[in-house]
Recover the amino acids of this structure.
């Protein structure tokens, strides 16, 4: 065990107090600067507000485990938690101010600046501290000695994650599984050797990475390790399968792990829908003259309707009808719909331009306001294509755990247009599932930004 590895852990309680005091200082300092900067008087109501906000922040932060160890947690996740904690803190202040009828004593501008700036500063301070700690961990300070029990796929993946993340400060002392060859290429040591190291306090954490069918071995290991003070974690093998936004949940008192789940639930449904209504209405208003011009151009340039509907799979695999400007001489929507190819004779000259620039998709903002689609999401494919690829690509139908979108993560990364091979469709689906797994309002706004200023890239859009 490295002699530098116990410093922060040894003084963890004291450092926790310091961390809380830093947060309190940031909250109070930003309030003071906001009040002084906008010429308000530092009346007693501000002092009371600072006190209430600090106490509320501490209490809500404890509830959300904000002061737990940062070792294996991401800054993004912590930043999201800070925003949630601060919003709840502001809600407490609003309730107290309303009940005490003291809101008239506070400057609206100063209070707004304080409310907006404080979470950003809290995140900034944590970023600086994290960078400093990670620098020291990369140098070997504040490291933890860990051991991995198991040689299978989940053990290999765990070893790979640790080796690629030196900032975590985790030093793998060895892999143990009764001296057999592992998938990673390492040869495991006997578990009895590990038990000796545990008794000698040379190991801080143990990760048991056996498959679920090895329940008896896991139980025996836990019984042996119960006679020690080492921290033990079990890595279930379902975490190396293709999960979709999995999370812990419960059915009564029974803990469950959702395997395939939509990321949009609870308040997220409201956030996503408000995003679609507000931005969709604004965009539709702005592009309405363009829609009229394109409609007239399509009608004049070739025979047939300017706009038509095609069947697509929507949320939960239900069939919806999406609006499109006609870009072909034919209106295909049957059991077999060939994908558009380069120099496709079905595509009109104007249609080629519309398809290349994705302008033929603009009427789908109507579908967005109808609630059938979202601005951002996996692009809907023809029903015939869905039936074809769901049999060929593992997890293909998981794309429909969210509403289809006008633009998506795959499209802004160049995966649009013709998918003439299964491999190309697999790459598109991978981007779609990556979007679903990492969905957030900020991710949506990023994709919209990339669409507006970078366009939906792809050389195969015919």
């Amino acid at each position: 065990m490295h002699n530098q590895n116990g410093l922060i852990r040894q003084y963890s309680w004291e450092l926790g107090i310091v961390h809380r005091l830093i947060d309190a200082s940031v909250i109070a300092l930003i309030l003071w600067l906001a009040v002084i900067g906008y010429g308000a008087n530092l009346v007693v109501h501000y002092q009371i507000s600072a006190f209430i906000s600090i106490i509320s922040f501490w209490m809500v932060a404890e509830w959300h485990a904000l002061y737990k160890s940062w070792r294996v947690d991401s800054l993004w996740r912590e930043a999201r938690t800070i925003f949630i904690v601060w919003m709840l803190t502001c809600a407490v202040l609003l309730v107290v101010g309303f009940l005490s009828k003291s809101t008239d004593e506070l400057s609206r501008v100063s209070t707004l600046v304080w409310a907006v700036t404080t979470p950003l500063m809290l995140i900034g301070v944590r970023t600086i501290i994290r960078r400093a700690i990670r620098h020291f961990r990369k140098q070997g300070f504040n490291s933890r000695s860990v051991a991995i029990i198991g040689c299978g796929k989940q053990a290999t993946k765990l070893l790979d994650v640790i080796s690629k993340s030196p900032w975590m400060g985790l030093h793998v002392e060895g892999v143990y599984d009764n001296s057999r060859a592992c998938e990673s290429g390492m040869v495991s040591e006997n578990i009895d050797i590990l038990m000796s190291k545990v008794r000698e306090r040379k190991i801080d954490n143990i990760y048991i990475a056996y498959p679920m069918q090895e329940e008896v071995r896991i139980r025996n290991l836990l019984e042996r390790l119960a006679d020690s003070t080492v921290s033990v974690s079990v890595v279930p093998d379902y975490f190396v399968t293709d999960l979709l936004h999995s999370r812990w949940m419960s059915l009564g008192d029974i803990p469950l792990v959702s395997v395939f789940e939509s990321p949009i639930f609870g308040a997220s449904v409201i956030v996503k829908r408000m995003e679609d209504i507000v931005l969709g209405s604004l965009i539709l208003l702005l592009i309405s003259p363009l829609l009229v011009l394109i409609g007239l151009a399509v009608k004049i340039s070739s025979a047939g309707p300017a706009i038509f509907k095609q069947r697509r799979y929507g949320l939960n695999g239900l069939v919806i009808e999406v609006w499109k400007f006609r870009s072909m001489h034919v209106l295909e929507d049957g059991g077999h719909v060939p994908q558009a190819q380069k120099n496709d004779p079905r595509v009109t000259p104007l249609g080629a331009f519309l398809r290349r620039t994705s302008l033929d998709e603009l009427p789908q903002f109507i579908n967005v306001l109808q609630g059938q689609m979202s601005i951002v999401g996996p692009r809907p494919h023809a029903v015939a294509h869905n039936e074809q690829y769901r049999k060929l690509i593992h997890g293909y139908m998981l794309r429909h755990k969210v509403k289809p979108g006008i633009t998506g993560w795959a499209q802004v990364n160049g995966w649009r247009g013709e998918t003439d091979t299964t491999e190309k469709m697999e790459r598109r689906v991978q981007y779609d599932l990556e979007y679903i797994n990492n969905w957030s309002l900020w991710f949506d706004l990023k994709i919209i930004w990339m669409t507006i200023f970078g366009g939906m890239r792809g050389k195969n859009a015919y």
Q: What stands out?
A: Residues 379 and 405 are 5 Å apart (CA to CA). The first strand starts at residue 144 and ends at 149. The chain is about 50% helix and 10% strand.
